[in-house]
Design a protein that fits this description.
Largest sheet: 4 strands, parallel
Number of helices: 5
Oligomer: single chain
Helix content: 25-40%
Radius of gyration: 16 Å
Distance between the termini: 15 Å
Structural class: alpha/beta
Strand order of the largest sheet: 2-1-3-4
Bound molecules: zinc ion
Length: 142
């Protein structure tokens, strides 16, 4: 999976989702174009970028799947949704301060090397996967 994206500020929910799916996704800096990135925007005045004109998140995600196969090639639970960097494995010390029920119920923890956030496949993760399964019942094998 080598797709990289760049989105404008209006697409912050799309940014969060693309990172959740494992894609390197930055906020656009149009003055410094990176030709290895796919530029997404909701602004109809911009040329030369992929226009996501639909209003709802569901429609936007479906458009991105149709165009770029983002679900098929997704690697969820691999990237920090805040920092956009790849997650590492969390150590015992890293998870020391997590609530006891989290430590009891989950056995896979990852840590962002940048911000230190700990990730596990809790209810937030489940909700996002559920949302995707509703959109793509046939496709998703996450
Ligand atoms: Zn982070």
């Amino acid at each position: 999976m080598s797709l990289k994206f760049s989105c404008d500020m209006m697409l912050h929910d799309v940014v969060r989702w693309l990172r959740f799916l494992g894609y390197d996704t930055e906020y656009s800096r149009y003055k410094r174009r990176d030709k290895n990135r796919i530029y997404l925007t909701s602004n109809e005045k911009l040329n030369d970028v992929f226009l996501l004109k639909h209003e709802t998140l569901s429609e936007r995600i479906m458009t991105l799947e149709k165009e770029f196969r983002i679900i098929e090639n997704a690697k969820p639970f691999t990237r920090c949704s805040v920092c956009n960097v790849l997650l590492g494995i969390a150590t015992e010390t890293d998870i020391d301060n997590l609530p006891p029920f989290v430590k009891r119920n989950f056995d896979s923890f990852k840590k962002c090397p940048e911000c230190g956030r700990i990730y596990w496949k809790g209810s937030h993760y489940e909700k996002m996967i559920e949302f995707l399964k509703n959109l793509f019942p046939d496709l998703l094998n996450l």
